[in-house]
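Sorry to interrupt, but I need a hand with the structure work. Can you supply me with one protein entry, sequence and fold together? No commentary is needed, just the two lines. Leave the record below and I will have a look.
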Amino acid sequence: MSKITWIIVALYCATVIAQDCKPVNFGSDSIVCECNSTYCDNYPDPKPPSEGEFIWYVTSKSGQRLNRTDGKIDSRPKNGLTVRIDSNKLYQNMEGFGGAFTDSACINIKSLSQETQDNLMNSYFSTNGSNYNFGRVPIGGSDFSTRPYSYDSTPGDKELKDFSLAKEDTEYKIPLMQKARKINPSLRFLSAAWTAPPWMKNRKIFVGFSYLLEEYYQTYADYIVKFLETYKSYGLDMWAVSAGNEPFNALLLIFSKINNMFWSPGNACKWVINNLGPSIEQSKSNNTIILMLDDNRVALPWYMVDVKIWHSEALKYVKGIAVHWYTDTVIPASVLDLTHDLLPDKFILMTEACVGDRPWVYPKVNLGSWQRAEEIVDKIFENINHHVVGWVDWNLALDLQGGPNWVDNYVDAPIIVDDEKDVFYKQPMYYVTTHFSKFVPRNSVRVHTNSEDKNVIATAFKTGDYKVIVLLFNKSNKKKSISIVDEKVGSINVELTENSVHTILYNYDA
């Protein structure tokens, strides 16, 4: 075959691999991209840019979805507004991005044909998609289940003789988690229990205020370890487990309808020190790390101040602090800085976020909402610029109602499934999150950025293979002419579409 023929074949293969969004407008302020059994948009990983060049991806309210442009780096800035990159000033190492394998998410994914399922899973976990490297899984049921349940419903079973996984695990979560790990072998799983089995608590209920009885502290630690070891037997080792999901929900009437169990900082630490930590250390899952809090940043920094001053022995076992985003609009990001300064050797990881969660917000699912994408991406930038090492979204996929959810706590998701049509819709929030997850690899280091325009939010990273990743968010409804200035390489002069998110890649010299 001639050299020219090989070039033609290579170009043809490139075009069939890269597939554009199939837009659908549901009457919101932007579009969704529809995928089915035979077609789904994808975005192959780019080859590293050549010296003096950059690669630029754009997603916008007007309908661009990871649209790519290649450009040349200039020797000087040509636009009035600058975003300056200082790759000598370093911050946190990044751990990654992902979503949650809730019962609801997995039920929705499994409701599709096998071919459509494959397209959805590849959309999240392949290098042609979001390249997610985190998956969160509830231990037992959550509100995003079709029923309340635990793994042992036998009162007084301290030896956990009746412990067994549920059909939700064996038929839904485990097969899809195995599939995701096969697509992306670097995928890490983290887990959290919403509650202990009710018979271990002061009130024998899944919802409403309750706490773990001290006589069952060791039994509950054994219960968590049994979960870890059982999932490990399926090839699904847990990178991390938290001390418990949103322990303060039990104190709030509006949220106490969700599966929950209260932990004070002191009792949580006591349990970690005397029970959970040693039990994990002595188990087959002794590489699993422990995360504290797993609740909203309204609890910071005071929660970790309590831990450090009064229960510092827990820090022997605790490697990170898990936070949720639900109070981010009212609690300043400075509490993350205070927490980092208090415990600089403990990473902070965002482990849950979703939109449409407020009781007064309707519709719960808003197909094509750019506003919701902006809510998400604005907080991703904010959290990362305040020491957070990664972002794990909530449900991977929900139905058109925003469920199923056994307590009717419906919300939105990056992917919405319509099983009757055997299709799924990628929301704008899917794409703005992918701007991070696809291009910012694990162990990237955040570097200093300074944007002269308050409506152009910036963050940037450098990798071990001498690549710089710059992310920009133009939150205004006007175009912005921006010069990205890096003294090591020159200036990248670009025009940012109104209401848009951008990822720009270029190389640097060591």
